[in-house]
């Protein structure tokens, strides 16, 4: 699994070439630090890569880089039952001091069967102050034969005292192509156009795009578009239809803001089409062949008005306005 240009791809993870190179050189030189900090956007593969690295470090087959996937150690990693791999995840949104204390207690003993124990601490930006102080003691006096891998969202702050004691490995948003490719391999397997549309909205985060796929966000968008694209729609006569679509949108709950982002992306593509700009419109298939809708939205002023309506809805949600009322007001302005 070695690649001289991109480093060892421990997990088959797409993208993240810089992270692969840095980790590969460190492993090859035998200079593992006591702690890594994988920092980057949410959903771009930090935790997946950490698991792959843990498997590779303890793989019994030393003739190949990465993990063989078939030795006893690799099989235990794949089943989630490796005794020398620990995961500390936030509980109710935060890593608590009790979790760190339990981890430190485990680190006081040697690895059970491997050369090195790997501990993955997920989302350390969600760590409470007292938990951070407890972890700091371990980072200052790290026990031998243990590797800590911390992950954090690049948009969130990590305690400087913790970050300064780790080797920081940057992770970045993936390309639209890589994100779409990952989506087409997920359960549900969206078509290429849907995958690219979700990839654009997710801004290079396959994890976020997968959440959009799971909530059928594009399907709901198509429902809403089909209604507002109907040139025969009458707001007074079809009040029930509009209210039903508003209810469908409101039921997205915490996923409503990204749905509004997808709606803005679609409107932006309509603007590009009407303006006859030579840029590809990734959501054109939602209204492909519907010339009546093109005529209905022939004015850029009309499209800007709809974009402003979505923008107002986003601001109202940010002010914690009633979600149902926000959606009802929005559909009547589209």
Secondary-structure map:
Blueprint: H1 17-29, E1 35-40, H2 46-57, H3 72-79, E2 85-88, H4 97-107, E3 117-121, H5 129-140, E4 146-153, H6 160-163, E5 167-170, H7 176-184, H8 192-202, H9 206-214, H10 217-228, H11 239-250, H12 256-274, H13 291-296, H14 300-318, H15 323-332
Parallel strand pairs: 1-4, 1-5, 2-3, 3-4
Could you list some keywords that capture this structure?
334 residues, Rossmann fold, five-stranded parallel beta sheet, disordered N terminus
The domain count comes to: 2
Query: How widely separated are the two ends?
Result: 51 Å
Mean pLDDT over all positions: 83
Count of DSSP-assigned helices: 15
Q: Segments where pLDDT lies below 50 for 5+ residues?
A: 1-9, 287-293
The CATH class of the largest domain, by name, is Alpha Beta
The SSE string, one letter per element, is HEHHEHEHEHEHHHHHHHHH
* CATH-defined superfamily of the largest domain: P-loop containing nucleotide triphosphate hydrolases
């Amino acid at each position: 699994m070695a690649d001289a240009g991109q480093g060892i791809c421990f997990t088959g993870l797409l993208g993240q070439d810089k992270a692969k190179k840095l980790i590969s050189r460190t492993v090859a030189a035998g200079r593992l630090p006591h702690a890594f900090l994988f920092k980057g956007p949410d959903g771009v593969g930090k935790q997946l890569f950490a698991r792959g690295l843990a498997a590779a470090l303890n793989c019994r087959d030393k003739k190949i880089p990465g993990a063989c996937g078939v030795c006893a150690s690799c099989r235990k990693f794949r089943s989630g039952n490796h005794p020398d791999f620990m995961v500390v995840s936030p509980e109710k949104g935060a890593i608590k001091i009790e979790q760190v204390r339990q981890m430190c207690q485990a680190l006081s003993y040697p690895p059970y069967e491997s050369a090195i124990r790997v501990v993955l601490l997920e989302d350390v930006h969600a760590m409470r102050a007292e938990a951070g102080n407890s972890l700091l003691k371990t980072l200052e006096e790290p026990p031998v034969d243990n590797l800590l891998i911390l992950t954090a969202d690049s948009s969130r702050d990590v305690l400087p005292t913790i970050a300064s004691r780790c080797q920081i490995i940057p992770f970045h948003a993936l390309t639209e192509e890589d994100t779409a490719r990952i989506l087409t391999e997920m359960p549900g397997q969206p078509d290429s156009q849907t995958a690219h549309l979700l990839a654009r909205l997710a801004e290079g985060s396959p994890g976020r795009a997968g959440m959009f796929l799971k909530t059928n966000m594009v399907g709901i968008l198509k429902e809403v578009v089909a209604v507002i694209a109907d040139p025969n729609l009458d707001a007074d006569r079809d009040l029930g239809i509009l209210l039903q679509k508003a209810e469908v949108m409101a039921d997205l709950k915490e996923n409503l803001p990204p749905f509004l982002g997808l709606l803005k992306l679609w409107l932006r593509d309509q603007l590009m089409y009407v303006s006859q700009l030579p840029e590809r419109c990734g959501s054109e298939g939602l209204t492909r062949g519907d010339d009546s809708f093109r005529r209905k939205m022939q004015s850029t002023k009309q499209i800007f008005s709809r974009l402003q309506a979505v923008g107002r809805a986003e601001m109202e949600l940010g002010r914690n306005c009633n979600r149902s009322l926000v959606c009802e007001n929005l559909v009547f302005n589209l």
